[in-house]
Amino acid sequence: MDYRGQASLPRGIRDNNPGNLQPPPGLTGWQGTVGMDGPFVVFADDTWGLRALALDLTNKINTDGLDTITSLITAYAPPSENDTASYISSVAADTGISATDQLGTDQDTITSLMRAIVNHENGDTASAQYIPDSDILTGYQMANNPGTVFNAAVIAAQAYPTTTVFVVGAVAVGLWLLLRPKK
């Protein structure tokens, strides 16, 4: 869903960025970025924001070695900007994972972390109302299955039919021409 322009919603939801992500260091944004709201990325819809959150968590665990809730949240929400201890407790309670247990990057762990972070960033009530588990799963799948990026374009076409249907159709025709069997 696209919640841009709905000023009454928490920032993360109205920016379609339920994890309140900033651009990755050295880069201008994530895939699906359509703008900025102060230091935070604005995404085309919430599934792009959730995709970015899934990638961010997976990279922090796999690449940066932040493989406990304590180390992950300390980096994600540093004490200079947040009540990090409260954040760690909140994520541990929501996921049922001890703050010091080693984290994996399997679907259940990442989607559980995503839900806990979205809840903490936006409040349990708003998160439950605007960010369904199905969108969290879609974001995770977009991050982990290369073929779902095209599916995301189809989802975007449903949300923005007048502007993206042509683009999606052109991409589909181009892929068909490229991949069709040669005679």
Report what the structure shows:
- Strands 1-2 form a two-stranded antiparallel ribbon.
- The protein contains nine helices and two strands, in the order αββαααααααα.
- A hairpin with a 2-residue loop joins β1 (33-37) and β2 (40-43).
- α4 crosses α5 and α5 crosses α6.
- 58% of the residues lie in helices and 5% in strands.
- By secondary structure, the protein is mostly helical.
- The chain has helices at residues 11-14, 46-62, 69-76, 84-95, 107-122, 124-130, 133-144, 148-159, 161-179; strands at 33-37, 40-43.
- It folds into two domains: 11-145, no CATH class; 147-183.
- The termini are far apart.
- The longest helix has 19 residues, at 161-179.
Write a concise synopsis of the structure shown.
The chain is mainly α. It has helices at residues 11-14, 46-62, 69-76, 84-95, 107-122, 124-130, 133-144, 148-159, 161-179, and strands spanning 33-37, 40-43. It folds into 2 domains: 11-145, no CATH class; 147-183.
Q: Span from first to last CA? A: 43 Å
Task: Say what oligomer this is.
Answer: single chain
What summary fits the major beta sheet?
Answer: 2 strands, antiparallel
Overall domain count: 2
Spatial strand sequence of the major β-sheet: 1-2
Cα-atom radius of gyration? 17 Å
How much helicity do the residues have? 55-70%
Tell me the fraction of residues in β-strands, as a range. Answer: under 5%
Q: Helix- and strand-based class?
A: mainly alpha
Strand tally: 2
Write the layout of secondary structure elements.
Layout: H1 11-14, E1 33-37, E2 40-43, H2 46-62, H3 69-76, H4 84-95, H5 107-122, H6 124-130, H7 133-144, H8 148-159, H9 161-179
Antiparallel strand pairs: 1-2
